Amino acid sequence: MKSFALFVVLVGLWLLWSGLYLPMVMGLGLASCVLVVVLVRRLETIDHESVPLHLGWGIFTYWFWLIKEIVVSSLQVTRIILSPQLPISPSMVKLTALPRGEVARVVLGNSITLTPGTVTTDIDDDGVITVHALTREGAAGVIAGDMNRRVGQLEGKS
After folding, report:
1. Which pLDDT band, with edges at 50, 70 and 90, does 54 fall under?
2. Which of 59, 82, 86, 120, CA to CA, is 20 to 30 A from 126?
3. What is the pLDDT of residues 70-89, one digit of tens each?
4. Is it the case that residue 17 has pLDDT exceeding 80?
């Protein structure tokens, strides 16, 4: 099942990013996707981390929410940068991750980093995430934990 899911994702991404739908190119693309799946199976590296099916369909709604947050944060950072006073107040905060799984913690750390104005600097083994924020308001938003809660829901914990 995981091999098939990996194949479907690879084909979907290849079709999305290729943009060339000529018979020969599509044949080579399909062949390369099959080759990757065969190699990954042979190396025995297909597990719950490489094919995170356990995150379910909620990942898609999370992506749409994350895209909205990235746009809103981009506009806020743009306003800060273009302001003549440059009202920044850099700060480091620590956040305890609600998700317990490694994949979900990585999703949370990457989501924080993708959001302009914040960067994940460390994730320790106990699930404590250290974040650098451009402003105190950004740090307060990280601590408020809406993103943390949503990623926890992906994993099945809230």
Report:
1. low
2. 59
3. 999 999 999 999 999 989 99
4. yes
Q: What ranges do the domains of the chain cover?
A: 2-42, 57-155
Q: How confident is the model at residue 48 (pLDDT cuts 50, 70, 90)?
A: low
Asked if residue 55 lies in contact with residue 103, where contact means CB atoms within 8 angstroms, the answer is: yes
Are the C-beta atoms of residues 111 and 121 closer than 8 Å to each other? no
The half-sphere exposure of 144 on its side-chain side, counting CA atoms within 13 A, is 8
Name the token pair of 90. 């850099």
Alpha helices in the chain, H assignment, sequence order: 2-18, 23-42, 58-82, 102-114, 136-144, 146-155
